[in-house]
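Postdoc handover notes: sequence design on the structure in folder B. Input tokens:
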């Protein structure tokens, strides 16, 4: 799995003019899933994201995690994180097909919710408009293949 995690003061996702997910302080997570990803990968990624210490403490150091600041999550599926850009027109064969990706995406969301985090979502397969107010900006790239 690949995730682009951005610390935000607010973020939302809109589909066909309707807001499907919206948060205040927290993390916007753009999530890509590969064909070889598993349930274990999904749980490890959720744990990594929710445990990241990327919020500032009283001394201005990135030392606090999502729980410490009472933050929320907005998790948006994004197959384009597995784009092959060997040519000018990206290919997406590196992304998992929906029959693999949807259950794993839902497992990441469920794992975050089960850990007690308010978690909003995008809509898998929909054309979404994602808005965010980046805080910092702080943006972290996570690739579970490099976490082994």
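Designed sequence:
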């Amino acid at each position: 799995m690949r995730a682009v995690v951005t610390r935000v003061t607010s973020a939302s996702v809109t589909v066909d003019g309707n807001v499907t997910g919206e948060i205040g302080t927290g993390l916007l997570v753009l999530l890509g899933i590969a064909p070889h990803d598993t349930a274990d990968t999904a749980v490890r990624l959720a744990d990594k994201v929710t445990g990241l210490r990327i919020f500032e403490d009283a001394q201005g150091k990135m030392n606090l995690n999502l729980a410490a600041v009472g933050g929320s999550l907005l998790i948006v599926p994004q197959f384009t994180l597995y784009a092959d850009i060997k040519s000018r027109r990206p290919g997406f064969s590196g992304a998992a097909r929906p029959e693999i990706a949807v259950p794993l995406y839902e497992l990441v969301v469920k794992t975050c919710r089960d850990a007690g985090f308010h978690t909003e979502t995008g809509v898998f397969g929909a054309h979404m408009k994602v808005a965010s107010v980046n805080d910092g900006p702080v943006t972290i790239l996570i690739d579970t293949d490099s976490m082994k």
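Context for whoever picks this up: The first helix runs from residue 39 to 51. Don't rerun without checking with the PI first.
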